[in-house]
Write a structure and sequence with these properties.
The chain is an all-beta fold. A three-stranded antiparallel beta sheet has the order 1-2-3, with no helix packed on it. The chain starts with 9 loop residues before the first strand and ends in a 26-residue tail after the last strand. A hairpin with a 4-residue loop joins strand 2 and strand 3. The chain is built from no helices and three strands. The protein is flat, with a radius of gyration of 15 Å. The protein is about 0% helix and about 20% strand. The protein has one domain. It holds the Pfam family HEWD. This is HEWD domain-containing protein.
Length: about 55
């Protein structure tokens, strides 16, 4: 039995509205249209339920 992790392909900052998409060609995030606030500490619309590490008993 295997595990598959599916990362997000797009994200939007909840503070300034900046939107980005994942670009496989450069293996990184690219800004869509609006760059948002240049000094914003971006808070991406990720709910925080993803847990990549589990503890062993």
């Amino acid at each position: 039995m295997g595990v598959r992790i599916t990362p997000p392909t797009e994200r939007t900052c909840e503070r300034c509205g900046r939107s980005e998409r994942w670009d496989d060609a450069v293996e990184g995030w690219r800004i869509d249209e609006d760059a948002g606030q240049i000094y914003c500490l971006h808070e991406w619309d990720i709910n925080g339920t993803f847990v990549p590490i589990t503890e062993r008993p």
